[in-house]
Amino acid sequence: MQTGDGLLARLNTVAGGLSPKALIGLCESALRHGNGIVEVTARGSIQIRGLTPQSAQALARDVDAMEIDVRIGVPVETGPLAGIDAEEIADPRPLANEIRAAIEKGSLSARLGPKVSVVVDGGSRVPMDRISADVRLTACSDMPAWQLAIGGTAASARPLGFVDEAHACAATILILEAIATLGHEARARDLDAQHIAERIFLSGLPAISPTGREKSGLNAGYVFAAPETGESAFQTPVFSLVEEMAGGPERGNLQARPKGTPIATFPLVDGRCALGIALPFGSMAAENIIALAQGAIALGAAEIRPAPSRALLFPGMNLDPCETLRDAATSLGFITEAHDPRLSIAACPGAPACASGRIATRALAERIAAHDADLLDGSFTLHVSGCAKGCAHPAPAGLTLIGHGLHDHELDTHDGRAGIALDATARSPEAAGTVIADAQAGMEGIAALARRNRRSGETVAACLARLGAGAVTNAFVQG
Fold it and tell me: By C-alpha distance, which of 244, 250, 248 is closest to 224?
């Protein structure tokens, strides 16, 4: 795809990831054909930037020559520790493979838009909660079933009910077929959740209550309660009769699982461990990734898995080698601590890497993380965007800094001239009225406001929400 710094190639590796040698080869290809920057996205894809039409073809030939198995068609994502996490509720790989085969058999990829996706979350310690998907299947901890939901993340998707593994694939295909009938631009958010639920559970697929009792043949109109007029389908529970049958709102397995971080050491089913580290703002020089992969080879790692939240996982090592590799990653500039404030920041390449960038986003983000770490407590995302396109975080963020300039010829791409928007995207027009010359000073003003007013036990996000947008904006403008 075309970006401000040339063409971008995105590779989605199949379940399992890459061998360290394959990742080294890919990074060497990025040095030859791109700008030498390798990224891991929020969804766990690998990106190579700065390509030309000719060098992109050369990169593709390199990928083929290295026999890197990349995913094509409708993504059916299972998480980076699928099947190997010692604490996983259920292995999602068999169900995901069944869904992939059914998609191919039904030629659905050609009839669905390129952004349509499926998540099958087995309940690993690295969950898929923050990954948006058109169809979500989440393993339940208290019964042998999968929770079925459509159109969003774990927090925002609309729940439809529960299916056992034998029927989960058929339910998924029914939903994808419904999306396909609406056209190539359609998504699950365009579907009528009530209607889809009725089609699924009146087609012979059993509804399952939270007690684990199958309710085959129940009238779907009684099982599913549509939202009242004016209510959001994302907030209204649709399990009225199911809860009644279970003796009350036992909703433990209906809630989003606690947000996991990939920055940790994870126990695996074979008794070994997986080390998780992250790339600052999802980006790292190819040479540094090569050095880390070479260290992983020396320590016995046979595999490297890209992971959500812009991370890399190194499974299959004992604890001591994991600690040695973590130290090496720290020295190379990777994020190795779960409380690192940079994990709360989404920042695009910005200037000078991207021609569209109006500020040096990542340098600014590094300074904010160093000087105002207490502001970045993980309760909200700070989006530092080089321009109004907002590539690094298309969804609304708690705070968004947007690079600004009056005219191109007046633009100094290395200063911190930016505006701010609250609970908005980078395209928000309100940022134009808050442009200041030193965005870092503005963020220091917000951090000082939070320090003065934050109550005991209160998150920064809750504190700023209580103070209100006016107070936060004034603190930014006054610096």
Answer: 244
